[in-house]
Write a structure and sequence with these properties.
This protein is about 80% helix and about 0% strand. The chain is mainly alpha-helical and about 280 residues long. The radius of gyration is 20 Å and the shape is globular.
C-alpha cells in the first residue's frame, strides 16, 4: 500500500487552484506590484492624460466644447464638466492598467514578478523586479509600439462610430476588438520577454499567434479585462460619490491592476511552456 503524503494531497491540482493559491500566498507581493506600478508609471499617467483629453471629445463629440453644453436639468454646465473629467480619468485608468500606455522597462520588471509568482519562486519583490528590468531595451521598444498603435486605434474607433450608421458601427466595433487584442498582445509580449531569449520581432510574432490559436480562451481573458478595466471602474467613477471614489482608489491602488496582470501572465506562461521554444534558463 502506498504511503500517504500530506504535502502531495494538499497540493493544488488544477490551474484555477494553482492560480489562486499562488496569488493568495503572494498577496503582499501583488499589492506591492500594484502600488509600485502606479508610482513608477507617473510619466505614463501624464501621457495617458494627454491622450485622454484629446480622445474623449473625439469619441464623444458633444464634449468638444464642454462649456457650450448646458445640462437641461440643472441649467448649467457644471455637471457636464464633471462628467467630462470623470471620463478622462476613466480613460487614463484604462490605458494605464491595460499596459497600452506604460513605462515598458518597468513593466518587464513587473512581468518578472508575476512570472516568479506563477513558478512559485520564493524571491523578494525587488529581487524579481531587478531581474526583469534587465530586459529594459525590449521593454522600451514594446512601450513605444503600444504608444503609437493605441492612438491610431482610438482615432479609428471614434471616426467610424461617429458615422452613426450600421457600417460605421460594424467597422468601429472591429477596431474595438483590435484594441482589446492589442491589450492581450502587449501583456503576452512582456511575459514572453522575461521568459525567453527571442528577438523582439519573434516575440511579437509569437504573441499574435498565441492570441489567434487560442482565440476562444482569449475572448474569456478579454471579458475579464472588460469587467475589471472597463465596467467596474466606469460604474465606480460615474457614480460620483465619495464612497465609490474611495472604493475605486483603494481597489485600483492595491489590488485590481496587479491581479488582472497576474491573471494574464499566468495564462500566458502556460501557453509559452506549450507553444514557445527557447525558454530562458535562470
Amino acid at each position: 500500500m502506498p504511503e500517504f503524503d500530506p504535502e502531495v494531497s494538499n497540493k493544488p491540482k488544477g490551474p484555477v487552484a494553482r492560480f489562486f493559491n499562488a496569488g493568495w500566498s503572494n498577496l503582499v507581493r501583488l499589492m506591492a506590484s500594484n502600488a509600485f506600478f502606479i508610482l513608477f508609471n507617473i510619466p505614463a499617467i501624464i501621457l495617458a492624460g494627454v491622450i485622454a483629453v484629446y480622445f474623449v471629445p473625439w469619441i464623444a463629440p458633444h464634449f468638444i466644447d464642454v462649456h457650450s453644453y448646458i445640462d437641461p436639468v440643472t441649467g448649467n454646465d457644471d455637471g457636464v464638466i464633471q462628467l467630462y473629467f470623470f471620463l478622462v480619468f476613466f480613460l487614463i485608468t484604462f490605458l494605464l492598467s491595460s499596459t497600452l500606455v506604460c513605462i515598458g522597462p518597468f513593466q518587464t520588471g513587473f512581468a518578472q514578478v508575476y512570472k516568479d509568482i506563477n513558478n512559485n519562486n520564493s524571491v523578494s519583490f525587488f529581487s524579481s523586479f531587478k531581474t526583469g528590468i534587465q530586459n529594459w531595451k525590449k521593454g522600451l521598444v514594446s512601450m513605444l509600439i503600444g504608444i503609437v498603435l493605441t492612438p491610431v486605434l482610438l482615432l479609428a474607433i471614434g471616426f467610424y462610430l461617429n458615422f452613426q450608421n450600421g457600417i460605421g458601427t460594424i467597422i468601429g466595433s472591429v477596431f474595438i476588438v483590435l484594441l482589446f487584442a492589442l491589450i492581450l498582445v502587449q501583456n503576452f509580449v512582456y511575459t514572453i520577454i522575461v521568459s525567453t531569449d527571442l528577438k523582439l520581432s519573434k516575440i511579437y510574432k509569437n504573441a499574435i499567434l498565441l492570441v489567434l490559436i487560442r482565440f476562444v480562451p482569449c475572448l474569456g481573458i478579454s471579458l475579464v479585462v472588460i469587467i475589471f478595466y472597463v465596467i467596474i471602474p466606469f460604474i465606480l467613477l460615474m457614480s460620483a460619490s465619495y464612497l465609490t471614489l474611495g472604493i475605486f482608489m483603494f481597489l485600483y491602488s492595491f489590488f485590481v491592476i496587479a491581479w488582472v496582470q497576474y491573471f494574464i501572465s499566468f495564462y500566458a506562461g502556460r501557453l509559452i511552456e506549450k507553444y514557445v521554444a527557447q525558454i530562458k534558463e535562470e
